[in-house]
Design goal:
This protein has 961 residues and is α+β, with helices and mostly antiparallel strands. It is 21% helix and 30% strand. Strands 1, 4, 5, 6, 8 and 9 form a 6-stranded mixed beta sheet that branches.
């Protein structure tokens, strides 16, 4: 069976092709305006067909396209109007099947009025970026009913086909909000309902169990995402799902842990080989440890531990401690850099390489694997801290001390290595190996998590919240934006990221940033009738059509009631407006009601209530008594807390769990307004406007010319590309300045270079002695201070390479001759657990810092998916056989170029060695395919057994820069 799978249906199997004749098949789908990637594929993704295997092809209606069977970039359907489309497959010529897409016209019929007969209505206007008005209307059937029934309609264009209204009710088993404001009450009820939509008994994904359902009383990820993903779940649990449905969160968190496969030998060097591991989902380069943000699991685990009691809590303490300890110990081996004290790995949740990394990263993911990301390091800090706390609770003080020491050191390293004082922000990531410096790239999640975890000191937190750029609709996920890239992580608002920004602002009492977050989250849920996955950041729309360049439209996929977006809205109300803060066995209430919020929603109210909130089997009814007079909006600030009472008794500070009754009345009385003069940094731009205010320049590229002058000078050619050289009508950067790095240090800084409408070559003379090791990279910055990524590093002159056809290489497998696809001698598919390989008689002439990398090619899967990253341990011995250095290297998936498999180099291990003769043995480590939960994965490393193999080409030895 073949399916139409794309961004319009969550890449799922809801649209099977039905037979029209013996060799013709048809399916039909209704879509809204947008640019939707799609493929024709089987349920398990074992077979895929696309028009263009090398690039995304935008399909024209009525044209017949020849399909090719490839795991490759998708095709795309671009439409400026909503409608139904038919997709017709023709297999009359099996070697050249064809696809035609046509629009289908049907009468949609008369639209229902959801507000007819309702007792109370409220119309709210939202101004658009272009000064138009979208109206949202709310109504309630009986505002006095115990469980109110709401209707909500919108004039905004919805992302998905469906009626422009939603109907939902308050639910008896969940909390309810009563504020006197119909919109505020309704949107909370909407989020509660959407949480129940995501509460399922079965989950599924085409990559697992052949797409068949898997029993699990879990939270699925969204309307279009029917599986459980580690980071999505963990962040959503932390944002409040753990409080509202702790057992379902426990089930989901446990689903994302796994033991090692019993049928597979596991390397003896693996810590906790018989215990649990947290699962890193399929992703960049073959998953862990290219990506190491599986430790985000700890955010959800800590929150649910604070929501559990008795035996249920104790059972999960044991499970969490086992999973966390094994995970952080293995991450320490595979992903920790003792030189700078940070963990390597892709940015957390920003797992679409082209969206946030340099353009060249797709050709060499080792540089992403060796980079250090703020968000991921903060997650490691959280995981280590929680493990230390659990060790203390389980009376293992030696482990508690060990992990506490790790956490403290990591906090220091993050502040020393990633804080950019001049920007008042943390760098989102460093460049990879041999370049290594923090980049002037910023992300809202990383900044917010640094504040929430206490890594950022109070003064830093205030600076971050004031410095991070906001657009008119809120804070983007990243800044600056990437040129020539569609909307998804790039140019986007993600509600869960905004929610962490809100919580960070609340913690720091930063009114301006909090108000921006309140506006973003409420506006998004109101206009879209759902808590959407993401929005375009300058328009706030669920789909922005870039009419001049359709391929830059987006978000390219966008699901209704996305799990962490739903949690984000619940967090807005429960954690921030009503101020509930959880710790082990105690609660604290610190509502953060700003002047804007009070005037916008609670102008007529004397009090607001959150009732029927369950906490460890007890019921909480929370009332906030508001000041009688709301001040003018021009006076910004937040209301102080005058008094908190529990069941009529005044409480100072925390409310201990033991002081709670079966039913509890908590009353919070607000006092005077505390004035605030803080602000956020605003970027004023229009959506789709190609302005250097918003975008970073494209990174330059470097080329070392072959000529050498008499004085030993070589010329390094720096190629600077116009951001939009393909279209001279667009705005472009000017007044660019170049910084050149040599061995990770600036050698040329802020050299002015000119850019017109065409790409320009700039020749820079770089003097160094021929034969001396040097590694170069470069960045450029535009007139608004937006920096490019670093260029691909160019390392020159001193290195040696031992190829597998060298007498110094030994292995249990034979060496293959070069061929038309593999132009080097190689050992094919080397790396099974019983395979052996060693490089002997390695001569180091002078005492020095040295780096070692395996030369390889890994084509087990495409670069963006899979669980088969190569992960091996290199063990170095001196002439006496003594181990002098060892470490884990990563060998991510690569992609062929014009049929040729390029030679890639693994991440390096580094050592300081005296002159002498050495040997290196390559030993097994593990990847995610070694885990039991991946036995049903339908691609490499799954059904056919664990795989940690690649083509081994040689060993590179170079100076460690």
């Amino acid at each position: 069976m073949l399916y139409l799978r794309g961004a319009f249906n969550g890449w799922g199997t809801a649209n099977p092709f039905q037979a029209l004749s013996a060799n013709q098949y048809r399916t039909e789908i209704e879509v809204t305006p947008g640019n939707f990637g799609f493929k024709v594929a089987t349920a398990d993704w074992s077979q895929e067909w696309v028009v263009n295997p090398d690039a995304i092809e935008i399909i024209m209606l009525g044209k017949a396209y020849t399909l090719q069977q490839h795991k490759a970039p998708e095709d795309a359907l671009f439409t400026a109007q909503a409608g139904r489309f038919e997709f017709i497959l023709d297999f009359n010529h099996a070697d050249k099947p064809s696809l035609v897409v046509n629009k289908v016209v049907r009468d949609s019929g008369k639209q229902k009025d959801p507000h007819q007969g309702r007792t109370e209505t409220l119309s709210v206007d939202y101004r658009t970026f272009d000064n138009k008005i979208h109206s949202v209307v709310y109504s309630v059937a009986d505002k006095q009913a115990p469980l109110r029934q709401f209707a909500q309609s919108t004039t905004a264009v919805l992302r998905d086909i469906g009626p422009p209204y939603a109907e939902y009710s308050e639910l008896a088993d969940f909390p309810r909000v009563s504020t006197g404001n119909l919109e505020f009450d309704a949107l909370f009820a909407l989020a509660i309902n959407e949480m129940t939509y995501l509460s399922v008994a079965q989950i599924n994904d085409g990559n697992y169990n052949a797409g068949k359902s898997i029993d699990c009383d879990c939270f699925k990820t969204g309307e279009k995402w029917a599986y459980v993903w580690t980071r999505d779940l963990a962040y959503a649990a932390d944002l409040n799902l753990a409080l509202l449905d702790p057992q379902r969160v426990v089930n989901s968190l446990k689903f994302k842990t796994s033991e090692f496969r019993k049928d597979n030998k596991v390397a003896s060097s693996v810590y906790g080989k018989d215990g649990l591991q947290i699962i890193q989902d399929t992703g960049s380069g073959g998953s862990w440890p290219i990506s190491t943000d599986r430790v985000t699991w700890a955010f959800g685990a800590e929150r649910v531990l604070n929501s559990l009691a008795g035996d249920a809590r104790q059972a999960f303490v044991l499970h969490a401690f086992d999973a966390l300890r094994n995970t952080i110990e293995n991450d320490r081996v595979a992903a920790f850099d003792p030189i700078d004290g940070l963990y390597t790995g892709e940015q957390s949740f920003l797992d679409w390489r082209e969206q946030t990394y340099a353009t060249w990263i797709v050709d060499d993911l080792t540089y992403m694997a060796s980079s250090k990301a703020l968000s991921t390091n903060v997650a490691h800090y959280q995981a280590i801290k929680l493990t230390a706390a659990l060790a203390e609770e389980l009376n293992q003080p030696h482990l508690a001390n060990k992990y506490t020491t790790w956490a403290k050191a990591l906090k220091v390293a993050i502040n020393q290595k990633l804080w950019i004082k001049e920007q008042g922000l943390y760098s989102s990531l460093t460049a990879g190996h041999f370049a290594g410096l923090p980049l002037n790239k910023f992300d809202w999640l990383g900044q917010s998590l640094a504040i929430m975890t206490g890594i950022a000191e109070p003064q830093q937190a205030t600076k971050i919240l004031s410095s991070y750029p906001h657009g008119p609709m809120g804070a983007p996920v990243i800044f600056p934006q990437q040129p020539n890239i569609p909307v998804y992580h790039n140019r986007a608002l993600w509600p869960f990221v905004t929610a962490y920004g809100l919580s960070a602002a609340t913690k720091a009492k930063h009114v301006a940033a909090a108000d921006e977050a309140y506006k973003t989250l409420i506006r998004g849920a109101a206009l879209n009738l759902s808590n959407m996955e993401n929005l375009e950041w300058l328009s706030g729309q669920a789909m922005w059509l870039q009419m001049d360049i359709p391929a830059e439209s987006g978000p390219v996929i966008n699901s209704k009631y996305q799990l962490w977006s739903v949690a984000a809205y619940l967090n807005l109300v429960i954690d921030n407006v009503f101020g509930l803060k959880q710790e082990k066995n105690k609660l604290k209430f610190e509502p953060f009601i700003t002047q804007y919020l009070a005037n916008r929603f609670f102008q007529q109210a004397k009090q607001i209530q959150l009732t029927n909130l369950s906490y460890k089997g007890k019921t909480l009814d929370i009332t906030i008594k508001l000041p009688t007079q709301k001040l003018d909006d021009k006076e910004a600030g937040y209301y102080s807390i005058q008094q908190v009472t529990l069941n009529g008794v005044k409480r100072d500070g925390y409310i201990e769990e033991g002081s709670l009754l079966a039913s509890n009345e908590i009353v919070i009385t607000l006092g005077q307004l505390i004035a605030s003069s803080d602000s956020v940094t605003l970027v004023n731009a229009l959506p789709g406007e190609h302005t250097p205010k918003v975008y970073a320049p494209l990174e330059p590229s470097l080329k070392l010319l072959s000529d050498t002058s008499k004085d030993g000078t070589k010329t390094l050619e720096v190629i600077v590309r116009d951001d939009y050289a393909d279209n001279s009508n667009r705005l472009h950067s000017s007044d660019l300045k170049l910084t050149l790095y040599r061995n990770g240090r600036k050698t040329i800084e802020d050299q002015s270079i000119a850019i017109t409408t065409q790409a320009k070559r700039n020749l820079v003379d770089v003097k160094y002695i021929v034969g001396e090791a040097n590694c170069y990279s470069a960045t450029i910055v535009n007139q608004f201070g937006n920096h490019s990524h670093q260029s691909y590093p160019i390392c020159v002159d001193v290195y040696q390479e031992i190829n597998v056809d060298d007498r110094r290489f030994t292995s249990n497998k034979s060496v293959q001759q070069p061929n038309s696809n593999q132009p080097y001698h190689y050992v094919a598919s080397w790396g099974a657990v019983d395979d052996s390989a060693a490089f002997n008689d390695i001569t180091i002439d002078n005492q020095s810092h040295v780096a070692f990398q395996l030369a390889y090619h890994n084509d087990k899967h495409v670069i963006g998916q899979g669980i088969t990253s190569g992960v091996k341990r290199l063990v170095m011995r001196d002439a006496k056989g003594t181990i002098v250095s060892e470490g884990v290297v990563q060998l991510p998936h690569g992609k062929a170029k014009q049929g040729l498999k390029p030679k890639l180099y693994s991440t390096p291990i580094q050592a300081f060695l005296p002159a002498g003769v050495y040997s290196i043995e390559v030993q097994d480590f593990f990847n995610m395919s070694y885990l039991t939960k991946n036995q049903t994965f339908t691609s490499a490393g799954g059904l056919t057994g664990a795989e940690n193999q690649f083509d081994l080409i040689g060993l590179k030895i170079s100076p460690s820069f």
